[in-house]
Structure prediction request, 617 residues.
Amino acid sequence: MMRAMYSGVAGLRTHQTRMDVIGNNIANVNTVAFKSQSMTFAELMYQTTQNASGPNATTGTGGINARQIGLGVKTAAINTNIATEGASQTTNNPFDIRITGDAFFIVYDGSETFFTRDGSFYVDAVGNLVMTSNGYNVMGWLPDPDNPNNIVETDVQKLVIMSPENMTYEPEATSLAHISGIIDKNDTNVTSDDGKQINLQLYDSLGYSYTAKFALKSSEKEGVYGLELKELVDEDNNVVPLVDANGNAVDVGFSSNVPLDRPGSVSLGTGYNWDTNGTQLFSPDDPNTPVFNVGEAEHINLATTDADALKAQQALADAYGVDSVQDLTELVIQYDVDQDGKPEGEMTVWELITNTPNQDYTHTNVPAGGTATQVTNEPPKTTMQKVALAIAKAADPTVQQAPTLDTILANIDYDREIIQGHTLNYDPANGLFVGVDGNSDTFNLDLSSIIVNTPMGTSNFENIVVDVTATNMWNNSGASTVAATNGDAEGLGTGRRVGEMSGISIQTDGKIYATYDNGQTKLLGQIAVAEFANPSGLEKEGDNLYSDTLNSGEFDGVGVNITANGGYMNTGILEMSNVDLAAEFTEMITTQRGFQANSRIITVSDTLLEELVNLKR
Prediction:
């Protein structure tokens, strides 16, 4: 009877343990990522009163089974139902993360590493990603310093995602741009003196924004358009003066801001006359005394200081209605260009200015108020170079060498405007883009010669290459759609201002990205996870934490990418407890009945003992 009583006690204790497990499960029915436990029973031990014996052939008796009396029950195992995932709870908190799969988050308390399915995280005061419940650091990997878009999967370390350097995104200067759209030759904006305005937003290396204002203008040659940079303004619409590499102020633009508005022909003023040989010029004030004599070479020396020579030069300029002989020289150079950009037949006035009569030149008398007669022969290169040298000397008497003929012609536009930079060229037959500056091998404009320096000295601009291949000269009902955009067609080289962090997102693979208000994103790190051969072998530590054991498999310190074995992470969602209340209540009922039955063993055994004691009265 005593044995039965103690068996009942063992049963009570074991069922109480089972009730403790059930109670813990029910208590944690709303605990984040809690994994329920279950308990199994085992026989405690047996007292053998008679051993088993086998059959005896000699005596003819059979075998006898052993006689054993059980002494109760014990706890065989308490298992954690770790493989069953709990339901999802939506929180919309971007730092709440649910793991799908068998992996665990890796957290660190400063001395020990733990594992958890509880993905309730937040960012602490210094930018660390930590557990909400206890502040343990969430562990993962950081980007490669040499390649910030790649993660280095080394030993895990704490994820400092809101460090001071991550709160902003560095600015970048614009290095690429593209112009696209249709140029309609009948667009009145393009054919006007001001041209069609095209704006291009630019950034310097400090992140300051500028607007380059261009003017697209047609020329006298079909399919040829000039592009002028009218001005560069800052964010406050203040004009930014530019300087050259030597710090000297330069005109803004591909072409002169002040078009040379010259007439299309060179005409004598009313009352002026050349003699029949075209060597002497007479004014209306004195028809007998020439105001200019071709034979006097010093009269066209623009660098002269001789008073008589200067007076004669001015008389010649007055006769043709310009301010100076230098203006007249420029006018002749511009006027004397055909549609192919090469000098046509020269005018008599050319001889007058250069003072280099040539036997190949023929000229006729220019009547009063008439126009200088063009001749059929092209002037030699040396003649144009002499004129260019004379113009250069007028500005700087120390100049000794004239520009080459190619340089002279490159600076002549078809609409009699001096071009300092580029022209856009199109095939008149099909309107397709041909090239830049008449070169079919050049498809980009280089702004580096224009927007490179500021009055402060060293430029904060990058060299800016503009792709113009996506433009065409087509009919578009008189409306041009050509426009400029910073960056290439794929969005590279756009430049940007400094960006402030505007949000953080965590991808399904655990990668953490920051977004910035300048449109950029930055990879901040990746949450690593741990996987175990026997996750049920993990030891519960409280606070929703587990530690590894010899039976679970040890953590290697590196972790794995959650997607390696098909798992993934969801943000704004937490994993709920996997406790099944229906099952727990059922287990509670059976446990209660078992407890009651065991208590009856004790009470009945006590009654029997009482009867035994009562045998002696």
